[in-house]
Amino acid sequence: MLKYIIKRIIALIPVILGVTLVVFMIMQLAPGDPARMILGELATPEEVAQLRTELGLDDPLLVRYFNYMIDFCKGDLGDSYFKHRPVMDEILDRFPYTAKLAAVAAVLTVVMSIPIGILAAVKQNTIFDNASLVVTLFGISMPVFWLGLLLIIFFSLRLGWFPTGGADSWRSYVLPAFCLAFSNMSTVARTTRSSMLETIRQDYVRTASAKGVPRKTVIRKHAFRNALIPTITVIGIQMSQLLGGSVVVETVFAWPGVGRLMIESINSRDTPMVLGCIVLLTIVFSVLNLLIDLCYGFVDPRIKATQS
Amino acid sequence: MAGTANNLAQKEPEVQTHAKKDGQMADIWRRFRKNKSAVVGMIVLALIILLVVFASVFYDYEEDAVQQNVYERLKPPFSEGHILGTDDLGRDLAARLLHGGRRSLTISFVSVACSVVVGSLLGAIAGYYSGMIDNVIMRCIDILMAIPMTMLAIVIVAALGASIPNMIIALSIAQVPSFARVMRGQVLTVRGTEYIEAARAIGTNDAAIITEHIIPNVLSPILVQVAIRAATAITNTATLSFLGLGVSAPTPEWGAMLSSGRNYIRDHSYLTFIPGLAMMFTILSLNLLGDGLRDALDPRLR
């Protein structure tokens, strides 16, 4: 098992290298001269040329990438063009906010959607089931930022229950986390429901019922665990999408996280910052995926066998 | 009588093959039709597409969608002459909705079309040839998949500049991995079958095998993926515009309309509500269509 984990971690490295290369190259396509942008309109050509040499902007592309990666391994992601701070510091300041929001959204997803999915399956074709199907259908079809704006309209502006943005109190977490989680909750609830329905129809569940085991125990001990496997797969996929969604949600709710930092940096053409944000988010994304993959081994003994 | 029997015997194989081929398509269509929500989705989508394609019939582009009219600004829905109201620059919202839908849907559908072609080809080649080619292609796909899709699209548009062609390029690149993966999986499954072996034994060249035998048989999952990806493409297009990385003013587009409506969210919430509603219905119908297709094409139920 340990060998498998180490193998997977080592396999991550070329992916991260590849990602940094791809994003680095993409960012080089952007027009505009960073040195001129830093110094401003009134700088003389000599000053611009000097800054370019200092920043190493005139070196060949691969040399620049190489230097960037060497610094990267030392933990230095360069300095922001505009904020006059190291990129790493800025990102580390903001990352806890993104992480906290994503964590709340993740907990919300798991805690709310699995029970709802199970209940809908157990009470199939009742009003609860049909209602949950409709609600989840809207959940997967709603654009995230529209949902966010709707939540702001109703709960912040009309009812005044929650703030429209910022990250001041616990109240600030509610709307953004719900917004981020809603589509994930819908997908997970639907998957749980259909997986549960399939499991309930299995022979071993019927046997347990026939033996006289009370319905609730049947569901809890037999159906639930096996139905959970596809659910965990989906939860895994959704968790990684939380990161992508956080970019939008943070912008809508003015949340001081890395996603919003990335958008701001893009708009101000702060290339080192954008690079740093993406690389960091990609690493987190990949590590999350790895952890989730490893989780399958714990849940499904069949997969554990193939893993070791 | 003998002659008739002979005729019947000769005609029979012909009738059989026709009936079989038609039978399969008709079968799928029949199963699809039974699924009421899928049919509703299809009808709603068709309606939206029709409205959007014929946008110019209802509202002239220059006059209604772009021309600013300060006297008419911020009129609420159901006002005179403006069934959905006007925006902050006096432009009719319904006109902008229809014309904006053109842009949103065009960008989404074209990008999905590009990704299907490129992704399927890559996946097919990777799956068919295996070995080194497969490895190289899949490593590249893995790298692209390691970056969350929305972010990848954002970065590409940020680098290339915000414009409709660049949005299409960015979204296409971001969606290629999904199709490549599905295609590769399907090809790997089909590759070992006997009729492929037979085709190779006759000496059919590889390109012909891929195009004539493999691709037609793996179309079903790809079709389902297309519907699903189209739905996410619409969201991603709107997201790009919403973040300011999409079309530039005054071009109407659903995401951009949402973004500019944000400034008036307190007192004129319809500016954000209505374009979002249009988006939601389009995505909803695409999701229903995709679900219906998946159920109708599912070989297990055949």
Explain the layout of strands and helices.
The complex is a heterodimer of chains A (308) and B (302).
Chain A: H1 2-28, H2 34-39, H3 45-55, H4 61-73, H5 87-122, H6 127-141, H7 144-158, H8 171-200, H9 203-211, H10 215-252, H11 258-267, H12 271-299, H13 301-307
Chain B: H1 2-34, H2 36-53, H3 55-58, H4 61-66, H5 93-129, H6 131-146, H7 149-160, H8 164-191, H9 194-202, H10 206-217, H11 219-242, H12 254-261, H13 270-297
Structure notes:
The complex is a heterodimer of chains A (308) and B (302). Chain A is an all-alpha fold and 308 residues long. Helices cover 80% and strands 0% of the residues of chain A. Chain B has 302 residues and is an all-alpha fold. In chain B, α1 packs antiparallel against α13 (270-297), α5 (93-129) crosses α11 and α12 (254-261) runs antiparallel to α13 (270-297). Chain B is elongated, with a radius of gyration of 24 Å. The model of chain B is unreliable at 1-20 (pLDDT under 50). The interface between A and B is large, with 45 and 41 residues.
State the main characteristics.
heterodimer; A: 308 residues; mainly alpha; 0% strand; B: 302 residues; elongated
